[in-house]
Structures are given as C-alpha cells and as structure tokens.
Amino acid sequence: MSKVNITDTILRDAHQSLIATRMRTEDMLPICERLDKIGYWSLEVWGGATFDACVRFLKEDPWERLRLLRQALPNTRLQMLLRGQNLLGYRHYADDVVRAFVKQAAENGIDVFRIFDAMNDLRNLEVSIDAVKKSGKHAQGALCYTTSPDHNLQYFISLGRELEKMGCDSIVIKDMAGLLTPNITTKLVEGLVNEVKIPVHLHCHATAGLASMCQYKAVESGAFGIDTAISSFSGGTSHPPTESMVAAFKDTEFDSGLDLPALQEIGFYFYDVRKKYHQFESEFTGLDTRVQVNQVPGGMISNLSNQLKEQGALSRMNEVLAEIPLVRKELGNPPLVTPTSQIVGTQAVLNVLGGERYKTITNEVKLYLQGRYGKAPGKISPQVKHMAIGNEDVIECRPADLLENEMKKLRKEIGTLAHNEEDVLTYAMFHDIGKTFLEERDKGKLIPEALEAANTDNNGHHAATEFNVTIHGETYHIGLTGAGHRTQDMRPYYLSIDGVPEEIMVETLTELDLDETEGQSRKTSASGKRPRATEPGHVTTSMPGVIVEVLVKVGDEIKAGDSVLITEAMKMETEIQAAVSGTVIAIHVAKGDSVTPDETLVEIQ
Q1: What pTM did the predictor assign?
Q2: How many Å apart are CA 167 and CA 185, to the nearest integer?
C-alpha cells in the first residue's frame, strides 16, 4: 500500500458548502505560498459554483482568478469540477463550446479535471473527457453516489469500468450529500479497486458525521486519495478536516507525510477569513443526519438557506427539506448534484411556497422531463410528466446531439464586449449575467455585493437582533432573522413578529420632489411602485425573482394558460402564465426588474 494522497477543497468546495461560495480571490492569494509548500496531491480551486458566484455576486473575472492562483501555486496541481456537457452552467452546451472551454481552462492553469454528470449518463461525459485528454491534462471521471431503489453497488462498479474504458486517468466516488457509511464505502472501494487499474479517489461530505470514518475505511480498502478541507472550513456540509485526517494516518503505512504544524497555521489564517463572511453563515450547514433521507448536498443547502433567507422564507426550510425527496422520486431518483439538485430543490421550494404542488413548474423541470439532461435512472411520475409537458415525446439520443455548434454565434452576439476567448465563454455560460458583467467591466462599474460589518455598534457593543417594540400601547416581539441583497434603492429585511415570519422592504429615498398641487414633499424611488394584484387578470409571480423576458406587449390578445413572462429565481427560469383570456392593457415590468409576489406585473382585461 502507498501513502494517502490528499486533495484540499479549501479554495472551492469548502466555502461553497459553508458560506455560499462567497470567498473572494483577495482572501485566497495571501495564503497561497504556504499552501503551495504543503505537498498536496492537488488543490481544488475552480469550477462548481465558483464561476457563477464570481460573475453574479463578487464581480470578479473567474478566468483572472484562475490565472492568479496558477501563478501563486506553481508547485501544486490545480483541480476543477466540471459538469460534463453542462460545463459550469445549468444547461447542456454544444460540443464546440465544451471543447473550447476545456482548452481555455487547461491553458489558464487547470491540471486535473474532475468530470461528472448529474444523471450518471456517461454519454454526457464523452466530449469533456476527450477534450481533456487532447489538452494533455488529467481526466478524473466521477461516480455521483446516491441511494435509491434504482442504485446499487454493481451499478456504480459498472460505471467505474466504463469510465476507465473512456480514457479516464482516475476515478472518484463523489458522495456529494454524505450518504456513504463505512461498511458500504469498504465494499464499493474494494469492488472498484478489483475491477479497474486506474486510481480511485473518495470525495465525501461530512454532513451525516460519517465522512472521516468512510475516508479511513476507503484508504484501508485501497483508495489512492481523499478530499479534505482545512479545519476552519471543515465539517458539516463541507469535508473532514485536513489536519485531522493527516493526524489519523500518521505513523501508519498510509502516512501522508504532510506537515501538521504548517497545516494548522493555514487553518488559523482561514479562521480569521471566515469571520469576514458571517452574513452567509447558515444554521443548516452543520451536522445533520437527515441528509440520509433528504439527500441534499453540501453546496446546495448552503445556497438554498441563503436563497430562502432572501425571500423571507427561511422558517420554511424544514418543509422544503421534506419536499425534496418527494420531488426527487417523482422525477425518477436522479442523484442530487448540480444541476439536478438545483432543479429538484427549486421545484420543491415552489411546491412549498406556492401553496399547491406543481402549480408552477420551472422550465428546467420541463427540459428534464423531455430528456434534455439525459436518461433518468428510475421511473418518472406520469402525473407530474403530464402536468409539465403533456404528451410531448421524450428524446432518446445524447441530448447534445440535438445542439448545433454555438461558438461562432456567441462571438457575434457578444461582439466587442469580449476581449478574448475567455470572455466569450463567460457569456456562453450565463448569457444575461455574463453580458452584464462584461458591460460593467467596460464601464469600470464592477461593484461586488456588500459585506456586512460585524454585528456591533460604534462602541463595540452588539447590536440588537431580538427586541420588543411598543406602538400605540401594543407590544410586539421582534426578531431580525436576516437581510437580502441590496438593489439600487431597496433592501429586504426578514423579521419574526410575535413568532410570525415577515418581510419588510427598506427603501433608500433618492429624491424629494415637491408636489405642487398638494404643497407637500413626495418621496420617490428609482424603482417606482407597482399596483397590488387584486383581480384574476393581474399577473403575479409566486416567489421573488428577476424578469428574464417579457413575452407580450400592450394590445396583445392572449388566452388563459399563455406564457406572458419568464422569471428567474434561485437560478432557475419559470414561465408565468395568464390566468384569464383577454387583452393586455398594461405591463409594469421590463427585463432585468426585480419582482415580488402580490405585485401586478401584467394586466389583462
């Protein structure tokens, strides 16, 4: 047996799992010299949700992050997580986009590409693996581990054999939710090691409290490497602590040889860094054995709790967690990993917050049911399928076979906003958000989301988050539970008033206009006001989001059930349909507007 090889996730999955992928490059670079001296097998630094978070929230160029990390870590393999044909987005991309993306990632510094498909549909990995091999880099094929009546050990072992035949240099068991037990780990690793000649790694989240034991059993059973996280970003929905696993194998035949005191110094650095991102901490990212039932992966629950908080619905998290396994079963038991985790999770949120299951169905669920993400592992509920896509045919081929090459079209669409091929690929990943990012960059207006200061006043005293307010002789118990993202002039705050969750919008007054007829000051804001929905012809949204497309114009004659708007919430798009037939007499929104429930977005008469 050889020493255990360690991949540290501190610069990617660890902060994705615990603080909603918000760590900034400026907090990574100062510690890179020490990280580079440790002797890791690799450092996971890119991919997953980091690309999205850089562009959407941090206003950083993800390609520049990669180049800076490559420069700062010259002696360490850099690793990324790639979603096969989904790359780093939430849809399948044409083969020429996949090849171009892999080529640029390799040239900018990635050495190891960990490639997975959310459905374990290996057809969706073919082009990615081939592109990595042609770039001369390490292709690591992933088995997305899950449990259901449609999954067993032989299923995963057969996937491992196929990945080896496809040219992978190694295999990783990707236990994104922390479902493995020590006993199953032993059987699975032994089965793979006996069947394939390439190294086997284990990626296991610590959510259920079993990951450290699973990793130890995996190494004893022949695993080549394990994924860990520096202790200050470990545990819970993240990974076992690097320092602890190094100590566990010390003076054994599997001794990693890594310097424990040096690792501990790195841990102290990130202990201080984590405080900076306190607003993204969540009570739902600790140890939780319920994951063995709901199967929600680490990165998903961190982002899910943050998104529910922004909608003033964090108190309903347990309802959402109970709904997720029901939706998963109805969709044919896909493993819950991006993008299927987002597809299932967002639909579960809509089912809970919408007041009626499948009253609103996201476009991504419809595409999934059409087979455009690949073949579902199990049987799909015919009732849900009919509600979503009616009697439409389900495709049987590799989904990307239906896509025409995109790169030439993308270059033309983005035009001079793209300064290089990397910019074109940023636009390819996220059309609207990517374009906005490139526009803001050209104007010198890339402003990252604000980081909240520690919860203290100017004298260093803690500001109150729970208090009583007395108004007109009535006393109310108020608890401040969170705050959403600030737009130009508005910010949502989430309260508990006598135990009832509420959302309030705090408006920054940008102007004072004099109302000449009344002789009084009138407060106005950039966003303006939309009328409340009171009639069947008033089109609303079931949850807060952003307008992606307005599909109608004033004067259009439409029928009940016609789509009038497309909104985006929790990174998933939803078509908003008319409840009545009639004529569009008013439109109160435009592309890019933020909207909330109960507002009238379109009026039909």
Answers
A1: 0.80
A2: 24
